[in-house]
Specification:
140 residues, alpha+beta, eight-stranded antiparallel sheet, SRPBCC family protein
């Protein structure tokens, strides 16, 4: 099993608020327009499932497979060129701030790992940055 981790990102919102927003994927409707169209196309989602075209990779569909209240959301692939799981870890910092980190686990041979390591790590960092910038409070 190969693991890829994003850097830890600071979020200016309480842990429970961030978890509540990210554990219901329909909340992504508010940030869908902020995603770069050349990186992610045809994004669709409901409460538990997210599907998108990510050129040149192809279509990726993720489904929430586990929720650990306020601390972790785990996604599994239902459609992907390479099956993987993605975890969003959320940790409290204070009553008004938390941290998040993304982790991908996948089975890949060493040759494939060398080919995908850099683009996958870059994509993971960009996704973590996007999740850290989401307006989590009702006022935003």
């Amino acid at each position: 099993m190969t693991t890829f981790e994003s850097n830890v990102k600071q979020v200016q919102a309480p842990q429970g608020t961030v978890y509540a927003k990210l554990s219901d994927l329909s909340n992504l409707a508010r940030v869908k327009d902020r995603l770069p169209e050349h990186k992610v196309k045809n994004m669709t989602f409901d409460t538990d499932t997210l599907s998108m075209q990510a050129p040149p990779i192809g279509t990726i569909t993720l489904k929430i497979v586990a929720r650990e209240p306020e601390s972790c959301i785990t996604f599994g692939t239902t459609s992907s060129p390479l099956p993987f799981d993605l975890q969003i870890h959320i940790s409290p910092v204070s009553e008004t701030e938390c941290q998040l980190k993304l982790v991908i686990n996948m089975e890949v041979n060493p040759f494939i790992k060398n080919m995908i390591q850099r683009p996958l790590q870059d994509g993971l960092e960009k996704m973590a940055d996007l999740l850290a910038m989401i307006p989590y409070t009702e006022n935003d």
